Amino acid sequence: MKQKRFMLPESELPREWYNIQADMATKPLLPIHPKTREPLGVDDLARIFPRECCVQELDQTNAFIPIPDEVMEKYQYYRSTPLVRAYALEEALETPAHIYFKNESVNPLGSHKINSALPQCYYAKQEGTTNVTTETGAGQWGAALSYAASVFGLEAAVYQVKISMQQKPYRSSIMRTFGAAVTGSPSMSTRAGKDIITRDPRHPGSLGTAISEAVELATTTPGCKYTLGSVLNHVALHQSIIGLEAEKQMAMAGEYPDVVIACFGGGSNFGGIAFPFMRHNLKDGKTTDFIAAEPESCPKLTRGQFRYDFGDEAGYTPLLPMFTLGHGFKPANIHAGGLRYHGAGMIVSQLLKDGLMRGVDIPQTETFEAGLLFARTEGIIPAPESSHAIAATVREALKCKQTGEQKVILFNLSGHGLIDMTAYEQYLNGDLMNYQLSDEEIARNLDRI
Length: 449
Hints:
The protein is α/β, with parallel strands linked by helices. The protein has 19 helices and 15 strands.
């Protein structure tokens, strides 16, 4: 019988995270103060984030960072996650490619986001913080943060993008189940939210608006720190547990990936699966192809510009060096709420500039077509975000069918779609549409920076 699933015993779990910044020939540019244009240090960032996260954010020297014992103990609740050979998908595509996926959907929160929520809440608790706040789009990060906060005895407040809250009502129910307060963004509870609603009373919300509100709450509330589920360097660091496990599991399978694929919103799960393998391109001469799959309606990697921009709509965050569509960008109401962000993470942006990875943009209907194919072959209903990675994998596998190449393709299944059935129902009913930005729309948004 062919082996389908590869699992690591607890004794083989990675005990360190991987920091790709240490191995990059060209380091990511530093975030800067919007007024002074001076690079920000740990003390500056620690006004918003847990201090240890700030240390990790700016660390461009240490390639490996020890995982605290208290975090490892929580990781052992659900790690390792399976590496799975997608035999049925290969057969359906009639491809000679070998397709593997890292299944991050099997943990109790249903997505990879818990990998960073736990250490962020742990570090917040260690420094005496009593409250944490954050934003969330599709809700995976909000659910993970709410759970992690409850584990470490913290109060959590989550601003969820208003349109995503309407599309996925059970996500906010999950957050409330773990004790979090959940508010649709933009809201009237913050100055940033009031200003946005005043300008546009029907604003559907975006991750940029929700970040503004969460940062405002963190900076005006004693004992409160802001946490972030993607984009920043320390988040990708924590997520590297995914790729570090996958390295060992691919060795168990006797193969090494020619292509590594993940969906892309801000970079958390892409960096998590890709960076440990990219280390071997940077240091050992490997030639693995790294592909970040983003929505056609939010194409910062494929059509954005590299420049300093705010991470939020109101301009509360530091200026970040990234590929961006402009912080005032209002994304289309696609169902992949976790990918509706205007900018890319700083590390990914530098890697893209240096030609060490590439982006592809996928139409919404193609993602759901790929999601259905995956569900009907592998028996897992994927999140709309993850379906972008599956669609990119299908594209690569069909290229192999044409060329006859037996490439090894690895993608990250970042979460399941069991709370996204409204979106699948709309697709099955023929009610979903694609959204494509014009060059003029992109130029207008970038001109406002």
